[in-house]
Amino acid sequence: MVELAVSLTVLLILTAIAIPTLMRSFRTYQLNDAAARLSDMLKFTRFEAVRRNTQVCFLMQQPSPPAWTIGTDSSCSGTLDTNGKQQVISGFATLLSSGAPSPTAISAALGGAIPNTLSGSVGSVTFDARGAIRAGKNGAIITAISVFYIGSLSDPEFGFRAVILLPSGSTQIWSAPNGGAWQQIS
């Protein structure tokens, strides 16, 4: 009986030590997964524009806050394609309009340009047939850098992610701890 009690005590102590580490790993995974899915959807939409040789829009909608639906809009009409690829970003990791650390490190790495924040509000990004970013349907080519912030304002201790959309249409993923500096991770 004493051996069983000692074994259970050791098991409980090890469990108490392991749970915070597992939660941190799980929250980090959720942030990385949301950033990767957003980046992949931007790349997919750009690829579709080039493949179809026409303008295709990446669309962000918020059907029920804090959940976001992202996907392609082939006609750039403001409606997601019903049979097209879509992703839902919800739960712990969501798109943020503010609250992430200052983008100073990102700006410095990108030649001093201050990124234009696109996350946190309903909107779209238009890719033309060459994969360049345009200011709306048939608009001028955009040369500004854009950023989508991902994190949790209610529980910022696990950090933030930023998906950078360069004028060429390529993406980068950056990471920052709560109150820390940004570092490029892909």
What structural category arises from helix and sheet content?
Answer: alpha+beta
- Shape by Cα distribution: elongated
Poorly predicted runs of 5 or more residues: none
For this entry, what is the oligomeric state of its chains? single chain
CATH superfamily: minor pseudopilin epsh domain
CATH class: Alpha Beta
Q: Any idea of the CATH topology?
A: minor pseudopilin epsh fold
Helix content: 25-40%
State Rg. 20 Å
What order do the SSEs take from the amino end to the carboxyl end, as H and E?
A: HEEEEHEEEEEEE
Determine the strand fraction and express it as a percent band: 25-35%
Domains (count): 1
CATH architecture: 3-Layer(bab) Sandwich
Number of strands: 11
Q: What would your notes on this structure say?
A:
With about 190 residues, the protein is α+β, with helices and mostly antiparallel strands. It has a single domain, classed as minor pseudopilin epsh domain (minor pseudopilin epsh fold), CATH 3.55.40. The chain is about 30% helix and about 30% strand. It is built from two helices and eleven strands, in the order H-E-E-E-E-H-E-E-E-E-E-E-E. Strands 4, 5, 8, 9, 10 and 11 form a six-stranded mixed β-sheet that branches. Strands 3-2-1-6-7 form a five-stranded antiparallel β-sheet. The longest helix has about 50 residues, at about 1-50. The radius of gyration is 20 Å and the shape is elongated. The model has no long low-confidence stretch (mean pLDDT about 90).
Please describe the topology of this protein.
Blueprint: H1 2-52, E1 56-64, E2 67-73, E3 86-89, E4 94-96, H2 104-109, E5 116-117, E6 123-127, E7 133-134, E8 146-151, E9 160-165, E10 171-176, E11 183-184
Parallel strand pairs: 5-8
Antiparallel strand pairs: 1-2, 1-6, 2-3, 4-8, 6-7, 8-9, 9-10, 10-11
